Model the fold of this input.
Amino acid sequence: MALREEIFAKVTEYYEKAHANKPFVPGQSRVQYAGRVYDQHEMVKMVDAVLEFWLTAGRHAEEFEKRLGRFIGAREVIPVNSGSSANLVAMTTLCSPQFKYRLHPGDEVITPAVTFPTTLAPIVQNRLVPVLVDAEMGTYNIDLDQLEAALSPKTRALFITHTLGNPIAMDRVMEFAKAHNLLVVEDTCDALGSKYDGQSVGTFGHLATLSFYPAHHITMGEGGAVYTHSRRLARIARTVRDWGRDCWCGYENPASGKCGIRFEREIDGIEGYYDHRYYFTEIGYNLKITDVQAAMGLAQLDKLPGFVAARKQNFAKLYEAMKRWEEYFILPRWLPKADPSWFAFPITVRDSVPFDRTALTRYLEERRVETRMLFAGNILKQPGYQNIECRAIGGLPVSDQVMRSTFFVGVYPGLTDEKIDYMLNVLEDFLNRGR
Done:
């Protein structure tokens, strides 16, 4: 349609005038730790969806599921409205009465103490008991050497995170899980594109989660996904996401129902048949994405291989430059089998140096270089989690050190060499002040 193409051309013209990259001015332009990287293709895709005016999930969402699944190597992808919702859906799915090996209230779930709050929250909200394990310094992942100590007769699952995109030793995780008959959920919200021993993280366990918040590897503004090889778990996850409704008709919902058996459901105690679209088998929510979001996600998927390569390249440049300052900082490390698609570059200020993290991050921020804490640090020190029912393994000393001394800077694809050089110059200026 000519008018539609004219609209797209005008959107492209608008992007060039209003959104195209502006020159970097050292000391004035902000060096972000993360952010959306986009061009006219995302805007045109989103306008295309708006012109169709299909306001909830539709054809773009269906295509997004398929393409993301192919990229990851997952049979089933269930898009949701955030990574936090993905974690909630995943953990709630494992508690479903429809799942043969379901978790029950009081069951224990081993999880890291250095984490993002909404990894821990769904464990608590499902009346499960988290068992908090300390982190490894440098990888910032759960310390696998402490798994045996965390085990008890009530242990039923592991909920682990690949922190900042840095893969955990999944061979060890799965060996432990199989030995003790445990379910495994992988939080890969920071790790889209990361691999361990050639296999995408998230495809080892029973369920995995992603986030598409603007800071992450691709973005829909808000958004996330649950993914799995299990059709049974995927079916339950979709039900939890879609109000708890059992209907499986997906994105095609003609009046009679795609399944052809819409009006053939029975409910105990009610005479006659009931509409399957109002037949609820789970306690659920409405956590779907919109088709406008999915349209943006499709354009982002086109760029994803380049995004992953840029993150690796930016990380490598920072790492090589910062090796000369190892007397001041603990630099990140990763396992020989790990191929990280880095979310960020973590830095821990050594206890022995004459400055602390606050002094350094304040200096960076004042000079327009963004920094962030490593999420919640030791999450049990956070006010919202101080009184939860849980077990902690040991004193969590590394988690406390992370909370005291660790921060991260960006490696996202929007960082140019010029911005990275400026960031390194600011770091060098700070260190030279005390010499």
User: Anything to note?
Assistant: The mean pLDDT is 95. The first helix runs from residue 2 to 18. The longest strand covers residues 155-161.
